[in-house]
Structure formats: C-alpha cells, structure tokens
Amino acid sequence: MAGMNAMEKKLAEYKCDTNEAICLKLVRFPEDVEDESTTFHPEYSHQLYGDDEVAFGYKGLQIQLYYTAGNLNTLFKVKYTSKVSEKFDCVEPDDVEGKIREIIPQGFTCNADDFVALLEKEANFRPFGSLLHTYTVHGGEDGEDITYQIYKADMACPGFREYHARLQTFLMWFIETASFIDVDDERWTYFLVFEKYNKDGETLYATAAYMTVYNYYVYPDKTRPRVSQMLVLPPFQGEGHGAQLLEAVHRFYCTSPLVQDITAEDPSESYVKLRDFVLVKLCQSLPSFASEQLSQGFGDAMATEAREKLKINKKHARRVYEILRLRVTDMSDEEKARSYRLEVKRRLFGPYKKNQREMVKMKKCLRPEELASHISQMDTELQHQELEKSYQELLADYRRVIERLARI
Q1: Helix (H), strand (E) at residue 232
Q2: Which of 4, 114, 248, 311 is the 20 to 30 A CA-CA neighbour of 354?
Q3: CB under 8 Å to 395, separation ≥6 — which residues?
Q4: 26: number of Cβ within 10 Å
Q5: For the segment 139-174, what is each residue's pLDDT rounded down to a tens digit?
Q6: Residue 193: in which H helix or E strand, if any?
Q7: How far apart are CA 12 and CA 59, in angstroms?
Q8: pLDDT for res 11
Q9: What is the pLDDT of residues 368-391, one digit of tens each?
Q10: How many CB atoms lie within 10 A of CB 290?
Q11: How far apart are CA 70 and CA 242, in angstroms?
C-alpha cells in the first residue's frame, strides 16, 4: 500500500491545470511572441479536457496558441519539461495535442519563425463585410484615442469562412457552453469589432470582438434576430466594446420593417446586465419613457414605441421602464419608494402566483401526503423572503446601470 501511495504521489506530479497550460496571444509585433505580458489564458477548457480541466502525463506543460492580431493566422506548439511515458510503463499521457487539433482549422504553423514571417502579411488584411459604426476609446499608451470599427459580415465575403473558422476557436475558451455553428446556414449573420492601429506608418487592424446572430422566421413575413454568442477578446475587455457592439447591432436591425424584435439565446448574467445598459441608453430619449410618463406606470405606449422604433420586446421594455423610473424616483421619500417597490414586486410575483394556481389544481388530484410535500415547497413566508431577496438584487443591478449611464 505504501508503494502504491508513492506511485500515486509521483503520478500526481504529472497533472497540469489546462487553463494555466493553454497560452493564448494576439500578436502584432515579433517581440510579442516572447513577451509574457501579452499572454492570456482560457476561462474554460472543460469541453476539450473534461470537467476537472486537467491534462495528465506532463510536467511544465505549455500549449501555445498564438494568433496574428488581424487575420488570426495561427501558431500551435506543445512544450513540456517531462513526459510520463519516459519514466513509467504503466500509464499513457493524455493526447493534449490531438484535442486542440479537433477545434483549430488546418493551415496553422508549428514553427515560430514561419509564424513571425506571417506578421508581414498583416498589412494586407482588411476587415470583412460592410462598415456599420466607428468609435473611439481614450487611453492608449500615449494617451491618444484609439479607433475601433464594427462590421457586418457573412459567408459570401471572400476569405471570411476561413477567418471565421480560426476566430470561433476562442469561443471554446471563454463561453462555458459554446458550440460551433453551421456556417452553411445562410440565416447566420456575423458582427465584428476591429481596432485600427499603426505599424511602421501603415494602418493595420486587430480583431477585438465577435457576435453571431441567427435570424429566425416569424409568421407571416418577419424575422426575429437572436443573439447566439458574443465575445470580447480578453485584451480588449473592460473598455466598453460589448456595449458598442450590441448597440450597433440594435441600430442595424432597427432600420428593417421586417424585423419584429431582437432576443438572445440563453443569455448569461453578464449579458443581461450589458443588455439592460444598452436598451436603457437607447430608450431614454423616447417620448413614452419621458420622466413625466414614468410615474404613470408601465403602459402599452412604452411597449409599442420600444418595439416599433428599437425592436425591443415587451419583457425587456418593462425592465427599461423600471430602471428609468428608479432613476427619477426619490428613494429617500418613503411613499415614493414604497410605490416603486410594489410596482416591481407585482411583476416579480408572477411566478409565485403561477405556483398558487398550480396548487389549486393539485388539491384536486394529489393524495394528502403528496400535497403536503408540495405545500412545504411553496411555504408563503419563504416566498415572501425570496421575493424580497429578488427585489434587492434587482435594485442593485438597476443602480449599477444608472451609475454607468451617468458616466457617459
């Protein structure tokens, strides 16, 4: 047993955290290849390496996935200081290289010199598709504004299919439930953000963010664009690019009378917060959301104007109303605060009312012991506690949106 424990301890030394082992880069200059400060790591690697996100069989494992900043030409190398098969005959190392090859398209290089040579071709790279919006972000190394551009693309753009195959590999590392889409389905639309930068007097472009939208058919003659996946690459996060991208997408679809509204597929908590900010920013200038209208409660005029002018559905328009009403409500006034709280809680109470209706039905068909079990799950006092908790969490989220709006 002692021998077995010693063996297990020795083998444990050959386990590597794949989130740490995978090293990603967006390379602009040859010196970036060796500059550790330009490296970033995945948030997730479970889709390739299992739920524990561990690779077995290596010491000092480093999986290098370096991309040229614009066209995303790829360097792929696997390095390690020791491999388990060199010292043990009883176990096999994981095929870490094979897992990566499953998701990266052909055409990558394994030679660093060849990769650096590809940087010279970056000057020829131009964004795909049609330009939708240009904006600037302050705060470059020299304190000057940095220019970004948002483009709409599809698979008909020459070279975009190959570029997209490289770009979508990032989804696996930063979206927990990411999956590759069927690019042969023409109902997909792609939106991309690029940074414009200078290198040796030439204007180049770096890939910064990416969104896929699926255009669902709505009877009889409309579509419902649904945001599927959205990613701001780590070197560009925290600079407001997600909000710029989502707003540009809304403004693009707003011009089409054939679009009913814009939704999102299984949105994350962070996406919902981003959407709240963008939709409030868009709606705050609409007449139906004027301050004098907010105190009258959420009405059909708000839902209609938000849908017709901005393609916002009723559910999201209601959240916009609640945020804007909070902004104009003096919460230190007990009566105004109470009125606002009751307004929001009436909406939040919807699921609990549904439970109560289900209880009435269950009383007619369940045995006493089954009914008692369900009643314990729907305890009224517990419902009130959960309702208050939901309200306070929502209030905190709304205040963050209001604070962000005040900064623009």
Answers
A1: strand 222-232
A2: 311
A3: 326, 344
A4: 22
A5: 766 778 999 999 999 999 999 999 999 999 999 999
A6: strand 188-199
A7: 10
A8: 78
A9: 555 555 555 556 777 788 899 999
A10: 12
A11: 19
- Residue 394: closest CA among 356, 355, 341: 341
* Active-site residue, from 92, 120, 176, 265: 265
Contacts of 193 (CB under 8 A, 6+ apart): 148, 149, 150, 151, 207, 208, 209, 210, 232, 236, 241, 244, 245
Q: Where are the alpha helices (DSSP H) in 81-159?
A: 96-101, 112-118
Instruction: Kindly state the DSSP code that residue 238 receives in the 8-state scheme.
Output: T
CB 312 within 8 A of CB 279: yes
For this structure, is 265 an active site residue?
A: yes
Strand order in the sheet with 74-79: 22-27, 62-68, 74-79
> What is the spatial distance between Cα 281 and Cα 348, in angstroms, rounded to a whole number?
23
Please, are residues 58 and 84 in contact by the beta-carbon 8 Å criterion?
yes
Which of 13, 35, 23, 9 has the alpha carbon at shortest distance from 96? 23
Side-chain half-sphere exposure of 216, counting CA atoms within 13 A: 13
Q: Which is more confidently placed, 351 or 212?
A: 212
Write out the two tokens for 242.
């997600």
Q: β-strands 22-27, 202-218: how paired?
A: unpaired
Give the integer Cα–Cα distance in Å for 280 and 299. Answer: 16
Which residue in this structure is represented by tokens 């999986």? 63
Phi-psi region of 254 (alpha: psi -120 to 50; beta: other; left: phi over 0): alpha
**Contact status, residue 92 vs residue 85, Cβ threshold 8 Å:** yes
Amino acid present at 121: K
Q: Are 24 and 65 in contact (CB under 8 A)?
A: yes
Mean pLDDT of 356-366: 53
Percentage with pLDDT > 70 across the chain: 90
